[in-house]
Recover the amino acids of this structure.
């Protein structure tokens, strides 16, 4: 949803917008290139666009690989498997594409490296290096002074995703240089050594090429999954866009492409690339006048009701990423019934892929009352912090909940710990049970185990009884080394009813009370 900023006062912007992506990130951006293809890795880098360059002849490092059209600058009978030394071209891009063709038939991925230029940042490229992606050594593990994850499902700080390094000190590389030729100097031109001629650029030539690799090469059927090969063609992109518009889930889309192509290895991009591409399509759908209309409606409500409150946040493309509102009745209800809040984000709108989050409470008639509503584009800690702080601002009182019920989400837990340090964060038992079923294995068919697990959840009277029941269940079913049960035990105070009797919770065990409210909102969204 795009907005005309001229109609509104200054608002918050999202500073974290630099769409250069690799596999280590949770989200990629797919842009259309001039040759009519979408890159699965993100933005294509033109010459000099993303390389840090100093004046004169400098050295820079660019670890990304862009997708450029393949060209043929060698005869058909050329040995593409062997050394490429001596091949020349008027463009270094063509030599780079030749090296990519070589990497494709041999079985490795290419990574750009050093670039040298003459004449400053916009000067001519005089030398370039291209490496095997396995070049270099893995980063050494430095001693960390930060607190380690205690093994629980939720710790105070988010742990980084562990990514296996592909660096194996492979020495395979290709180096090309710009050759110069002599030309007679004209009037006003600088003469080289006073000999009556100047040096002008001629052709790029491959001057070094180490062919040998020290690692296992990729079989042909999996080479399309290399960084330098992964791509979503224009035809595939159009098909994916049609399926997304008709609300076909991304997983179903990928299975369809895989079946049509004869297997995952023939799709040309990974499932993660596909999900990221669909995500960007959905974000692009938030455009036109929809956001403008929503904000205008909220402004109209605010003009009619001075106590009406709303806030929103935009990204650099003026798309709405965060939106919160509440009316005067919601504030009155919150001041009366703020002891327990249920906040559930399991519902998403279909059209814009936004997360619908409703703040719901219980009144003295045991009925749901809404305290506020929000739409978010992601479930990051920063987004939840913004939402909870905005919610507090909207109430304008130092009134905080005693208990907050949510689903099991690390980012949300981090935000609650920061914004509501004095409130008890409780996890929805229904979500824990659903999550547990996927970890029970054969035990989920054992009624005796089910009774033992349910007793630990909500059948114990105090902590001593819980510890006895938990230890007996773990021992009887040999779960002492099960990682999931260890993590679940680490956050037991967030879900065990026997350990939360010191905090008022209105007898609530689940955040499902808010789901009917979420559905009512989402149906009209």
């Amino acid at each position: 949803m795009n907005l005309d900023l001229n109609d509104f006062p200054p608002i918050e912007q999202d500073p974290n917008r630099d769409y250069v992506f690799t596999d280590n990130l949770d989200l990629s951006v797919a842009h259309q290139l001039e040759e009519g293809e979408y890159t699965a890795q993100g933005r294509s880098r033109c010459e000099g666009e993303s390389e840090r360059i100093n004046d004169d002849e400098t050295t820079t490092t660019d670890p990304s690989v862009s997708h450029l059209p393949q060209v043929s600058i060698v005869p058909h009978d050329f040995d593409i498997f062997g050394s490429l030394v001596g091949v020349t071209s008027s463009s270094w891009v063509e030599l780079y594409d030749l090296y990519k063709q070589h990497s494709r038939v041999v079985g490795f991925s290419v990574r750009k490296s050093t670039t040298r230029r003459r004449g400053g940042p916009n000067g001519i490229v005089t030398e370039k290096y291209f490496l095997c992606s396995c070049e270099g050594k893995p980063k050494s593990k430095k001693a960390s002074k930060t607190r380690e994850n205690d093994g629980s499902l939720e710790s105070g700080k988010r742990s980084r995703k562990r990514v296996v390094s592909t660096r194996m000190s492979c020495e395979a590389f290709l180096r090309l240089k710009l050759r110069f030729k002599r030309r007679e100097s004209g009037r006003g031109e600088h003469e080289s050594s006073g000999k009556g001629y100047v040096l002008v650029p001629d052709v790029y030539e491959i001057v070094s090429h180490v062919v040998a690799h020290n690692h296992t090469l990729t079989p042909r059927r999996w080479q399309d999954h290399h960084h330098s090969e992964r791509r979503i063609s224009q035809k595939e992109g159009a098909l994916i866009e049609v399926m997304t518009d008709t609300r076909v889930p991304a997983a179903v889309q990928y299975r369809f492409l895989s079946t049509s192509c004869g297997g995952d290895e023939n799709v040309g991009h990974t499932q993660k690339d596909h999900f990221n591409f669909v995500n960007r399509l959905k974000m692009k759908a938030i455009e036109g006048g929809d956001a403008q209309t929503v904000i205008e409606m909220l402004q109209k409500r605010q003009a009619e009701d001075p106590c009406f409150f709303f806030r929103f946040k935009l990204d650099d493309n003026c798309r709405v990423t965060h939106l919160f509102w509440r009316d005067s009745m919601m504030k009155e209800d919150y001041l009366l019934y703020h002891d327990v809040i249920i906040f559930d984000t399991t519902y998403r709108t279909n059209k814009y892929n936004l997360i619908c989050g409703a703040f719901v409470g219980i009144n003295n008639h045991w009925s749901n009352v809404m305290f506020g509503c929000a739409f978010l584009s992601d479930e990051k800690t920063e987004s939840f912090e913004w939402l909870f702080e905005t919610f507090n601002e909207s109430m304008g009182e130092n009134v905080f909940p005693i208990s907050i019920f949510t689903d099991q989400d690390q980012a949300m837990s981090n935000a609650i710990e920061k914004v509501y340090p004095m409130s008890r964060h409780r996890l929805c038992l229904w979500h824990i049970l659903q999550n547990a079923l996927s970890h029970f294995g054969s035990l989920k068919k054992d009624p005796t185990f089910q009774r033992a697990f349910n007793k630990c959840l909500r059948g114990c009277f105090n902590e001593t009884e819980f510890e006895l029941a938990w230890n007996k269940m773990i021992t009887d079913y040999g779960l002492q080394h099960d990682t999931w049960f260890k993590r679940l035990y680490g956050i037991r105070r967030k879900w065990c009813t026997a350990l939360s009797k010191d905090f008022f919770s209105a007898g609530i065990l689940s955040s499902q009370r808010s789901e009917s409210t979420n559905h009512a909102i989402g149906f009209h969204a």
